[in-house]
Write a structure and sequence with these properties.
It is a single chain. With 285 residues, this protein is α/β, with parallel strands linked by helices. It has ten helices and eight strands. Helix 8 links the parallel strand 7 and strand 8. The chain starts with 6 loop residues before the first helix and ends in a 14-residue tail after the last helix. The relative contact order is 0.16.
C-alpha cells in the first residue's frame, strides 16, 4: 500500500468482487495492532463482506467483541481454545457465558481438542469442549471446532454431545480425512478450509474437496496465521481468503463466482449473518 493511502481510498479504488465471508480470523492478535482498520478496509476492497474474529481466551474473547462493535462487517465468536484451557482462571468461563449473549457474538469457540501440543491435560480439554457445545446448544448458536491430531476423539465427543440435542458448528481449518469429514457432516457440522489447502504438500486434503457437499463448505484465513501459497511468509489477513476460495473453486470444479455465492450463503445460514444489515463499507464504525 502506498504511503499515505487511507482506509477509504483502499475501499473506493478497487473494483467490486463477488462477496465472501472470512469465517475465522484473529483480529485481536498483536500482529494487527498497527493496521487493524486498514486490514479490515483491504478486506472490504477485496469483496469480503463479513469477518468473524475468534476468541481463544477470556481476554481475547472480550477484545474480539470490542473489535466487532468497532467495525460494521466484523462479528465475534467467544471461547477458550483447548491449548489455553489449563490456563483459564476463576471467572473466565463465566465471562465467556456472559459475552456469548452479546448481540454481535455469532458463535461459541474456538473449542475442540489438540493432541499435538501438550499445553493442557486432555481431560481438561474434553471438559471445556463439552462446556462450549452445551453453551452453544442452550443459546442456539453454532460452535467452532479446533482439531489437531485428535480426529477420533473429536468425533466421539461430538457424538456424545449430539445425544443431548442437535449440533450446529464448523470444523475450522480442516486438514483431516474424508472419513472424519463425513462423520462431522453427518453430525450436522460444516467443513471450513484455510490457506493450507493451497499448499502443494496438501494434495490429500485437496483430493477430498470434490467429495464434499457444496452446501456445507466454508472458507477462512485463520489470520494472522496460515497465509495461502502466494503470500506464504507474510502475515495472513482477511483479504487473502479470496486466494483460498479461488483454489477451492478450482478443486470443486465450479466458477469462482459460484464458489463465492455458495460459501457466503453457507456462512450466512450457519452464523445467522444478514448481509443487508448495516450495509456499507466494512471499515465503517
Amino acid at each position: 500500500m502506498a504511503t499515505g493511502q487511507t482506509a477509504e481510498s483502499v475501499s473506493e479504488s478497487t473494483p467490486v468482487l463477488s462477496p465472501l465471508v472470512d469465517t475465522h480470523a484473529h483480529l485481536d492478535e498483536e500482529a494487527f495492532e498497527v493496521d487493524r482498520a486498514l486490514a479490515v478496509a483491504r478486506a472490504a476492497a477485496s469483496g469480503i463482506v463479513r469477518i468473524i474474529t475468534i476468541g481463544t481466551t477470556a481476554q481475547a474473547s472480550r477484545r474480539s467483541v470490542e473489535i466487532a462493535r468497532e467495525f460494521r462487517a466484523v462479528y465475534a465468536a467467544v471461547g477458550i481454545q483447548p491449548n489455553y484451557a489449563a490456563q483459564a482462571r476463576a471467572g473466565d468461563w463465566e465471562e465467556i457465558e456472559n459475552l456469548a449473549r452479546e448481540a454481535k457474538v455469532v458463535a461459541i469457540g474456538e473449542t475442540g481438542l489438540d493432541r499435538y501440543w501438550d499445553y493442557a491435560p486432555f481431560e481438561v480439554q474434553i471438559d471445556y469442549f463439552q462446556r462450549h457445545i452445551d453453551l452453544a446448544q442452550r443459546l442456539d448458536k453454532p460452535f467452532v471446532v479446533h482439531c489437531r491430531e485428535a480426529e477420533a476423539d473429536v468425533v466421539s465427543q461430538l457424538a456424545e454431545a449430539a445425544s443431548r440435542g442437535p449440533l450446529r458448528g464448523v470444523m475450522h481449518s480442516f486438514t483431516g480425512s474424508l472419513e472424519t469429514a463425513r462423520a462431522c457432516l453427518d453430525l450436522g457440522l460444516y467443513i471450513s478450509f484455510a490457506g493450507m489447502l493451497t499448499y502443494k504438500k496438501s494434495q490429500p486434503l485437496r483430493d477430498l474437496v470434490g467429495q464434499l457437499p457444496l452446501d456445507r463448505i466454508l472458507v477462512e484465513t485463520d489470520s494472522p496465521y496460515l497465509a495461502p501459497q502466494p503470500m506464504r511468509g507474510k502475515r495472513n489477513e482477511p483479504a487473502f481468503v479470496r486466494v483460498t476460495a479461488n483454489c477451492l473453486a478450482e478443486l470443486a470444479g465450479i466458477s469462482q463466482d459460484e464458489l463465492s455465492r455458495r460459501t457466503t450463503a453457507n456462512a450466512c445460514r450457519l452464523f445467522g449473518l444478514n448481509l443487508e444489515e448495516n450495509s456499507g463499507s466494512a471499515n465503517e464504525t
